[in-house]
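Why predict the complex rather than its parts? Because the way molecules touch one another can change local conformation, and only a joint prediction can capture that. The input here totals 1498 residues.
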Amino acid sequence: MRTLLSSLLISATGFVLAPSPADVPLRGFFPQSVQAQRDLEARFKTMPDPARMREAMRRLSAHPHHVGSPYDRDNAEWILNQFKSYGWDAHIENFDVLFPTPVERVVELVAPTTFKASLQETALPEDPTSNQQSEQLPSYNAYSIDGDVTGPLVFVNYGVPADYEELEQRGVSVKGAIVIAKYGGSWRGIKPKVAAEHGAIGCLIYSDPGDDGYAGGDVFPKGPMRPPQGVQRGSVADMPVYPGDPLTPGVGATKDAKRLTVAQATTITKIPVLPISYGDARPLLAALGGPAAPSAWRGGLPITYRLGAGPARVHLRVKSDWGMKTLYDVIARLAGTAEADQWIIRGNHHDAWVNGAEDPISGLVAELEEARALGALYKQGWRPKRTIIYAAWDGEEPGLLGSTEWAETHADELKAHAVAYVNSDGNGRGFLGVSGSHTLEKFINGVAMDVEDPETGVSAWKRMQASQLLNGSTDVRKDIRDREDLRISALGSGSDYSSFIDHLGVASLDIGYGGEDQGGIYHSIYDDFYWFTHFSDTSFVYGRALAQTGGITVLRLANADLLPFAFTNLAETIQTYVKDLQSLRDRRAEQISERNKQIDDGVFKLASDPRDPVTAPQRQQAAPQLNFAPLLNAHDSLNHAASRYDKAYSRAVSEGRTAVAKGVNDRLIQAERALTSPDGLKNRPWYVHMLYAPGFYTGYGVKTIPGVREAIEQGQWQDADREIARAAAAIDREATLISGLATTLSGGT
Amino acid sequence: MRTLLSSLLISATGFVLAPSPADVPLRGFFPQSVQAQRDLEARFKTMPDPARMREAMRRLSAHPHHVGSPYDRDNAEWILNQFKSYGWDAHIENFDVLFPTPVERVVELVAPTTFKASLQETALPEDPTSNQQSEQLPSYNAYSIDGDVTGPLVFVNYGVPADYEELEQRGVSVKGAIVIAKYGGSWRGIKPKVAAEHGAIGCLIYSDPGDDGYAGGDVFPKGPMRPPQGVQRGSVADMPVYPGDPLTPGVGATKDAKRLTVAQATTITKIPVLPISYGDARPLLAALGGPAAPSAWRGGLPITYRLGAGPARVHLRVKSDWGMKTLYDVIARLAGTAEADQWIIRGNHHDAWVNGAEDPISGLVAELEEARALGALYKQGWRPKRTIIYAAWDGEEPGLLGSTEWAETHADELKAHAVAYVNSDGNGRGFLGVSGSHTLEKFINGVAMDVEDPETGVSAWKRMQASQLLNGSTDVRKDIRDREDLRISALGSGSDYSSFIDHLGVASLDIGYGGEDQGGIYHSIYDDFYWFTHFSDTSFVYGRALAQTGGITVLRLANADLLPFAFTNLAETIQTYVKDLQSLRDRRAEQISERNKQIDDGVFKLASDPRDPVTAPQRQQAAPQLNFAPLLNAHDSLNHAASRYDKAYSRAVSEGRTAVAKGVNDRLIQAERALTSPDGLKNRPWYVHMLYAPGFYTGYGVKTIPGVREAIEQGQWQDADREIARAAAAIDREATLISGLATTLSGGT
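Output of the joint prediction:
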């Protein structure tokens, strides 16, 4: 079948044509297994039920269910019973973590006029869960240090490092000041971190209406966007250093774990932070003097955005209850048969900041329907070749607590047994989005080709391709037309895959639909059943699509004869990263040289407006050339090994060589682990993957080949060559492993 | 001197260095004339007086002085007397033009709620001239056709053709609708023209606060920006077809001129138009339904910008008094001596929409100080070699009326005698801006090197360079560092140079300082003495810089031994235009091909959100290859001729060959005329320059080599090759002329 198919790809003119989606074989399955798997998937696909998802969402989001709340535990127990009723072997695993909740919160303008921020989201008569105030966590940023500070206010745009360079050139200092930053532009925890590095004493973060308020559409409850009093809660722990419980870095927060004191926990912020609404932010921003903000910094409020400092002075007081809370991770298992010691793990968290209908319940209800369907197949006699573990994590919102503590607790077993981790964290209408390990890129493309998009009837893959063809740059469009697979993004951080990919080196995928729904209810009391069923995937057909996508992903990983990892895409992706690093160095070198030339030529001084002066930035050290040879050599090795593996794989599949499969699979699951380095990244050893990490100064945003990239970005040239060697070593290990597997698959040893 | 200088440019390493500003010789002056000219300029530069400019501005902007108003005539007579008192031979030249003024203006929302626009700018107690309501023209757009229409409202962004493509893809039609467009993105007259082409029945234009209101700074009177009731008046006549009096295209509007009827005048709009404030626009925009506007379309109002059509319905009524008005052009002359039949013309208009302190008085007061200084030199015995004509134009605001009718009336004399026209139209703080004929690029660089910037003490040239080095792209910065001269922009339209350059082929320059002042008072009652003396060039030191720049430009042109035209910069600039046209064709071809591919692949349909659908655009004809050979050959010829001329010029100057100068000068003044073609541009024969024209669909914005460029942009491929040939013929004529001049200068015939 496959040989015949391959020959069909040679057209009459003798050229090889890119295969159309329907031609793509079921990766990892021997010819004799394909039909059974196709039949199984066809049965599975009919099972996820939008009506059940709707009811599950209603139940799970009926009350606020943050970590430590009664309904968080109640939900966990309900989920546990669901899994059990589906036929799974399920239990709850507890951890004890530091989770501060607010006791005192004050934001007030004390000069030149006075104004006291309400810090209160208002209940709406249309929205039946918005009035559960006694059960809601007030709006706050978890892991803000306690503090009581008063100082001049400075507007810092998104509060990322480049914004402070701009402020410095305009003669605005944040030393001793309270900064106010817009949400967006980075993960929120970066804002107080960078502010503190520059000497600020407090930090406010607000949701600008130009970003997720009225600029994009009607505000809730008339439309989906953020109303004036809506606030985005969220964690500000320094997760790019390590996620999870701040008191137990690297180990599980079990009852008897050795814990740091709160004072020793480096991920707690250095200055107090509080999030506010644009209703509360407007009087503060309007009271600012100083230069007008650069046009790119302006938001959607009908005011002149000014930088300060002052005359606005602000008083900020934050105090939390720093008590320990219990996590309830729900862990369910379907035991495998022939390769039971290989684990396929699927997860979505269940805790929310408030009612959390979208985040996370819209993803969780799809996961539950997958589990129900898999359970039904199991009851009908199907048995997975590998063990399947479904998790509903607790404590994701405060800092990926439930998944991190579980992964740290079970680190040794997971390193030995985990094949892959498949994550979701909410869902909406539109286009399938996939981030993940590039060892799984080819595989997940195949899955996406076999799921139908509910709105168009074509495959999710085809619709994803159409969107990229429409919105991509010339280069992106060319790439899409020339390449067999659509590219998946690298994983940064911000959801429960982080421990798996970043800390353990388990190949991971993060999936979800979206891109058509707009909203401004993220982490507010308005993210609830009323909002979701009025403004998002109201018929839950994308919930079904997510369940089909997640379920087929798991079914294929669990049943494959040969695990569906592929390495040519990985090698090619690494090549793009290396090229990108080379051009990043050249660009930085050119920027530094140009900037220094401008400083030497005095152009800042000459071009400056005396009424609105801009001074020259600091001169920077010229960028040295770097030795990229180790990375280029390692890539060559990997490329060669990947091609050999690809050929060996194709022959083994077409010949149905079951005899070698088990041995190869046992070693294949180490392919992602080979890309890690036990010493981890500089200054953050918890992160051990040499290809992917969240950016130290971006938080969510991924940095690929992070050791090298961040050394270049931060001008730490002395580190860059060493980091090149470390990344190259990891890629070499990968090449060696894969080359060995190719030999084994080809009948060698 | 020059030979010595040239040899100094060879450095010790043998490489030629770019000359530093101070090394640049006085272009056009023989060695024996240089010192006298330098001395003259030094005397001149001390004369322009900021205090006099301030007092002249106070007088000229004391009352509204639009065309037809008593104070317009009063100002003209005062200016006439000033020129006379300076020792000039001056007179007023009258024309009779069609100039409609408003009789009825109604804008009201009639559904789903009602609101009546105030259409009234409010007097402010701080601002002593803002209360002259009985003398002010109400806010309106001159040359809007009368009309009384009611229809659904549609928001069209800036109302340029690309915006209508976007609307069509979103299923929004303007047929039978009234459109509301933001000011900006094109010259205002384009908006009703394009709206009418798409079937709209009325057009509102408003000033969005994101463009010149509170977004950029405090609003007037606290700051310089546009207050909620501020309105931008302005002409909407279709000036890209022809400017000037709509009833006398191509001929002067003298008493006995043959006139079209109003109905025959093609430049009057096809649909009624009215400008409104953002105070009046907000309720209209807030009442719009339909899809949310694309994010790039959103302005600074605190609303969701929606497209419509409806449910907002608007009633628009516009009726004008279509009577004739008299223009008062003030024309002053200092007779030349040796080459009196060669004219140097300098102009700035004196009419305003209301009080017009910035536009145009800030430029006019500088021009008057130039005239006073030249007059003083004249009284002291200095005589210009050539005749100098200073003009204070009337009727610029409604449509370049005064300059156009004067230029059309004197077309034959001007074609025979005009050397160059030097325009200004207001002034501010900051950087010298120069647009103009590239035959004068090298010359005006030399002038800019000899004027001191008041804020930094370096030359205006050096500061202009610093600004471009700071803000330019990599290519721009490289160009600046590699090239002897800073580039000047090509002239589009929007001020009184238009008839000179576009219709007569007189080499022109437009000069003015700016870039540091922000403002939102353009064409409103708040553009007055109070505003200017609080928020712009408050000490009038940039007024002095403009007078020095304009005066030295005139003095050098008037006194030069050999007219300071240079053609290597022209040839090199034409080469950049030709390259740009080639890449424009390739880009358009690629865009069309990609768009067609996307349509064929169905990606629009597949990517469309059913709740907010976007349909595919129309398929377009594939772009054929064009034959650029004639333009490339013509450029080669010009390049060769320009180099020959350059060498001959250098030799003639260094040898002080006065004998040939007169004959060469007589022919040199035809060098710009050679670039015109008597048939003019397609569909707009008034425009005869083959290198420069305002865009048919941009208005102010220049289109270089416009016949070819607009054929490509508009996909009129059958025209493009013919237009290439016509442009090439003009460049060939230029090459032939210059080649002949080189021969003459070298001692041939």
